[in-house]
Structures are given as C-alpha cells and as structure tokens.
Amino acid sequence: MRAFGLGKFIVNALAITQLTLFCQGPNRQRLSAGINKVALYGLFEIAVRNPRFYDNPFTDVTLEAGFSGPFGTARRVFGFYDGGGTWRIRFMPDTVGEWRYRFAFSDGSASGGGSFQVSKSLIPGPLKVRQDNRLWFEHRTGTPVYLLSFHLWNIDAIDPQILAATLDFLKTQGFNAIVGPHLGPPDRLPWEKRNGKIDFSRMNLALWKRLDTALRLLSNRQMVLIPFSMFGGTNRMPKIPTREQEDMFLRYWVARWGGFWNATFQPTSEWEEGFSRDEIMRIGQNLYDEDQHRHLISVHSLRASDETVQKAEWYDYHTIQDKLDGWNPEKYRWFADLFRQVPKPIFAHECLWEGNYYQKEAGLDRLNMRRGAWFIALNGGQINYADEVVFPRRWQDFRTEGLTFSELGVKTKPLGLLYPDLTFLASFIRSLPFWTLQAMPELADSGACLADPGRLLIAYEPGIGRISLYVASFRTGCRLEWWDAGHGRLHSRQSFAPTDRLTLTPPGPGDWVLLIRPR
Predict the structure, then answer these.
(1) Distance CA 328, CA 418 (A)
(2) Which residue in 85, 88, 173, 510 has a CA-CA distance of 20 to 30 Å to 209?
(3) Which H or E run includes 205?
(4) DSSP H helices in 302-447
C-alpha cells in the first residue's frame, strides 16, 4: 500500500487539508501520511480509494477513524462513501497542536494513519450556547453571536454562482446564517432512486455534493447553515421505513457534515406531523451521540416542542413556529416565559415570512412585520426571515411557489421591504453587549424589553404614543436615547434623575427603540 496525490488548499476562511490515499493489493499494510498544516476549526479531509467491489458501499462496509490530539484529546468519526470507489473522512480539529489519526475499514480492506499540525486561525468555530447567559449563542472561540438568518428553500439546487451572489447580498444586509434546504419529491431527495423507487439504503450523491458546495460558500462568508427538512417524514417528504436505515442516514449525515465548523443539525420540519415524541427523542439523541455534541442540534415544531423535548440534553435551542398572520406582533411576549421555563436560546424559525400565503395582508404590512421583529428580539428571540413576496408585491399562493427570492436567490429580485429594518435591528443589538441582557418585558408596559438592570436597557415603543419604563435599578439616574425604528437612526437624547418609573412621549409619530444607560 502506498500514498500519493497529496494536496493542500485553503479557501478564504475555510482551511482544508485534503489527502487522497489509494489502496491497492490485499491492503494489509498500514498507510501513513506526513505532517500537514490545518487551521483551527478548519476541515481536514482524507479521501481513501478502496478497489474492492461492494454491492452497496453505503451499507456493506464502514470506515472509522480515531483522532488523538494535544492534552489527551480523543475524537472518533466515521467515513462516508462518496462514489467512484472513494470514501472520505472529515474532521474539524478543535485544539491547536499536533493531531494523529488512524483509520480502518470494517472488513480489513484498508487501514492507515498519519498526523497533522493545527495552528491558530480566524475561523470562529461552531456555534454553542453561552453558559453564563443561556439566552444567547456564541462561537466556540467565545465571540457572542446574534443570529439574523435568511430562509433559502432550495440552497441545494441553486447554481453555485447564483448562490454565491445571493449570499453576498445577504451578507451586506447583516445576515449571518441561512436556513435550508427544504428537500422534497420528486427530484430533491437525499436518497437514491432505483427502478423508480426510493432506496433508503443509498444516498443521492449529487445532492449531497451540492450541499457540500453550499457549506463551503457559507463558510467563506462566515455564515452558518441551519437545515430545515433533511430527514423526511413530514412536508411531503417520505419517512425512512426502518430503524436500521434511519441510523444509517444519521451516521452518514454526521460523517458528511461533521467536519464543517458552520454546520448545525435539525432533522425535520413540524416533527409532530410525522413522528411520535419517542421517535423524535430517539432521533435527536442519535444525532447527539454520533456528532459527540460538536455542533448545535434542535428540531422544528408546529409551534414549540413539548417540555420533554425542550429539556432533552440534545435539544440545544428552541425552534419556534408562530407566523405573524395578523396585526398582533405583541404575541411574541411568550418567548420570555418560554426561556424562563426552559432556559435555552430561542430561534424564531418560522415567524417573519414576508409574503407567505399564511400571512397574506398582515405579512405584507411592513410596519406590522417590523413590530413583530422588535417584539421577537426584545423578548429574547433571534430571527429567521423569508422573502416570499411575489411580483407585483402580493403574497404567495400555491401557483406561485418557486418564484420568490427565498426560492430562487438573485435569479430574481428581492421584493421584501423588511431588509433595512432587520439590518438596523441586528446592527443595533450587535453594537451593544447583548450577551449580558435578559428578556424582561415587565420593565416596559409595551411588553418588549431586554435588560441588564442598572447597566443597560432596550425597550420598544410600537407607535401607541407613550411608554412607561421601570428604571429603579439605575440608582444614579439614567441617560436615554430615542432611536427611530422606521429610519434606523438616532433622534435625540435625554437625561433623568433617579426615579422608579418614567412615562414618556416619543419625539414624533412612528415606532421607537429606547436605549437606557446609567447617567
């Protein structure tokens, strides 16, 4: 057995070391590779060629690797079949220093090992829950993250050049995450079709490779991917029929995505429509065990998963569906109570979908949508937005599915009006130490307030003409700034002596954001 075809390449923020190992003969010798340099949280990838014939290479043999790093760090990953007699092992090193690895096929057809050196990098690392304030996310490097996500239904099917241009546009608007794909029949399924039927034991490699491309394009822009519907079982997606095939799918998914710092796992949408609680608990736990909790995991619910799911160790954050289908943005006050019951971050996954046919006129009203965004944010939620507006600015219907910016990207024009409002909201929150704040709607009679009492308070006045704030924690008095939410700019400042309560009239019509600090 000998190794050749050694290559190394770096793509912007995503550092990849790729090594191709060609296995020949009886494959009883141990294959070894030299030291390569890999960025911290970069993607180390090994491609192993195996000349043996397998009737089903996805199930007939497994490839397993063990990685050992500095300070006794040990990691296990599985390889995955990628077509043409090639298996790949992907690994994301999370410690600086020398790593060693060994791999072997379960049938003894090949084995090997090597080492590589991991150096510091600018890659922020996977998302995790912040431990000193579990309302928020942070990157593994400790950098706090406020998520502003965009829904791209067909991220797997969009031409890479169109996708790159779409992501560039969204990045300029302040988006740092993408939700997608929403897979579906007949052609966008993760499994292969044989003789016109789905073979749940074989993977649709063309689709999986397109998802690899999407993850790389996102990583280059330091954007995270949150899947919407991958696993099947709901939303016209077929359900995997056996436990064995289900386990195989989860292992393949984790093996394929586990090396990407910007991946997360979320198996299915509206899980209650196709799964029992016991089934979704099993699926979530399997994902957790396979990934060894290196990436975030959640699951999309009809509204919010029940308390058993919410409290599961694998369920890292709340995924919420509560569309703004009326003129009632204040309803998102319930997010604060949800966090108090089960303290985990809240991702408003399916709430602000401008132009969606479930929201109709209410979802085309920019002020209503902006109010909803601020009520979500100041009750502790982080936002996922979809632009499903159909030309000439009307809501989507079933005949116009597939024609919107959230489905086609820059192949069409964005028609949503909410972009500047969300850009301002995210930049405003990110400009402050938001990770110190808690959702405290009781401090503002509007019901929308984030606060670190005595240090910082953000409240929202939705245009009713007055607001009362409880500011007793600011013992030396407070300074107040009025921000015009509709235009995204500072209007004026005021200063107040110590008091328990302020009742204020906004500087003018419209809706307002108030920022309060100690005097």
Answers:
(1) 17
(2) 173
(3) helix 205-220
(4) 307-310, 334-341, 366-378, 405-408, 419-430
Sheet arrangement for strand 127-129: 127-129, 137-139, 144-145
Half-sphere exposure of 444 (CA within 13 A, CB side): 29
Q: What is the dihedral of CA 207, 211, 213, 219, to 10 degrees?
A: 180
* Residue 454 vs residues 376, 443, 471, 475, 477: alpha-carbon distances, Å: 23, 12, 8, 7, 9
pTM above 0.85, yes or no: yes
What would the mean pLDDT of 488-505 be, rounded to a whole number?
97
Give the bridge partners for 44, in sequence order: 17, 91
Contacts of 504 (CB under 8 A, 6+ apart): 461, 466, 467, 468, 469, 480, 514
User: Which tokens is 76 given?
Assistant: 């296990």
First vs last C-alpha separation in the chain? 73
- List the beta bridge partners of residue 30: 111
Residue at 100: amino acid letter: R
- Residues 312-364: tens digit of each pLDDT: 999 999 999 999 999 999 999 999 999 999 999 999 999 999 999 999 999 99
Return the residue matching tokens 């050049």: 161
* Number of C-beta neighbours around residue 244 at 10 A: 12
Whether the upstream peptide bond of residue 57 has omega within 30° of 0, thus cis, is no
Residues contacting 84, CB < 8 A, separation 6+: none
CA quadruple 350, 352, 357, 359: dihedral, nearest 10: 110
Residue 159 CB neighbours (<10 A): 12
CA angle (34, 36, 37) in 5-degree steps: 160
Question: Residue 192 and residue 212: Cα distance in Å, rounded?
Answer: 17
Give strand pairing partners of 66.
76, 102
Question: pLDDT tens-digit profile of 87-138?
Answer: 999 999 999 999 999 999 999 999 999 999 999 999 999 999 999 999 999 9
